[in-house]
Design a protein that fits this description.
single chain, 65% helix, mainly alpha, 11 helices
Length: 229
C-alpha cells in the first residue's frame, strides 16, 4: 500500500478560492434577477456564492456598495449611442437597448438614477448620451430636457412592462378575456372596444407601444430642436 493512501486530501471550495469583487457583483445581479430586491440580503447572496457572509465584505464594504456595483453592471449592458449615425437613430437604439436590458433585470429600473456614488460604467453612459445630444446641436438646456424626457419614458415603460401580468400572445388574450367577462360591455364600452378590436387581435404585443411612444418623443425633440436652431 502506498504510504500516502490513508492520508485524507482536501479539495478547496472553488467558489471561495476564486471569489472576487466582480464575482460578488455578478452573483448579486443574478440573485436579484431571481428574487428581486425586496428579498435581497447579504446572507442570501452568500448562500448563492457558497461563502460565509463576512467573506463578501472582504471584497465589497457594504450592501450599498453592492447595489452601486449592481447598477453599474446594468448600465454597462446598455448600448452606448453610436457615433456614426444620426442622433435620432443613436438615441433610439440606446433607448431600445435600455428597455431590453431592464426587461432582463426588472428590479433595476427604480435604482438606475438613485445612486449617489455612481460607478464608471454609469458615468461613461451618461456622458455618452449627453455628448450625443450636444454633438447634434442641442443646447445645454435642450440636452437636459431631452435626456430627462427619454429616460423618464424608458424607465416608466420598463416599470409598467415588468408589472403587467401579460404582454401579448395567448396569455394576454386569456387575461383580457377573463377581465372583460367580469362586467357588461354596456357599462364600459370603450374598454371593451379596445380589448376586442386591438388587444385581442392576432399579433398584438404591448412591446409595440414602446416603439410608437419612442418615435413620437424623438420626432418631437427633432422638431423643437430645429425650431430653436
Amino acid at each position: 500500500m502506498s504510504p500516502t493512501a490513508d492520508v485524507p486530501t482536501h479539495t478547496p471550495n472553488p467558489s471561495r478560492a476564486r471569489l472576487t469583487r466582480d464575482r460578488v457583483l455578478a452573483g448579486a445581479v443574478a440573485l436579484a434577477d431571481k428574487i428581486g430586491m425586496e428579498g435581497f440580503t447579504i446572507r442570501k447572496l452568500a448562500r448563492e456564492l457558497d461563502v460565509k457572509p463576512m467573506t463578501i465584505y472582504h471584497h465589497v464594504p457594504n450592501k450599498d456598495a453592492i447595489i452601486d456595483g449592481m447598477v453599474d453592471l446594468v448600465f454597462g449592458e446598455i448600448d452606448l449611442p453610436s457615433t456614426d449615425v444620426d442622433w435620432k437613430s443613436a438615441v433610439g437604439q440606446r433607448a431600445r437597448s435600455a428597455r431590453a436590458v431592464l426587461a432582463r433585470h426588472p428590479w433595476a429600473a427604480p435604482l438606475m438614477e438613485s445612486r449617489t456614488t455612481p460607478g464608471p460604467e454609469t458615468l461613461r453612459h451618461h456622458d455618452a448620451v449627453l455628448g450625443c445630444f450636444r454633438q447634434a446641436g442641442f443646447s445645454v438646456e435642450m440636452t437636459a430636457h431631452a435626456y430627462a424626457l427619454v429616460d423618464s419614458y424608458v424607465y416608466g415603460f420598463a416599470l409598467q412592462e415588468a408589472n403587467l401580468p401579460a404582454t401579448g400572445g395567448q396569455e394576454m388574450a386569456e387575461l383580457a378575456g377573463s377581465i372583460t367577462e367580469q362586467f357588461s360591455s354596456d357599462d364600459y364600452p370603450h374598454l371593451v372596444e379596445l380589448t376586442v378590436e386591438h388587444i385581442l387581435q392576432p399579433g398584438y404585443d404591448f412591446a409595440a407601444e414602446f416603439v410608437f411612444g419612442l418615435d413620437l418623443i424623438l420626432d418631437g425633440l427633432e422638431s423643437l430642436a430645429e425650431s430653436r436652431s
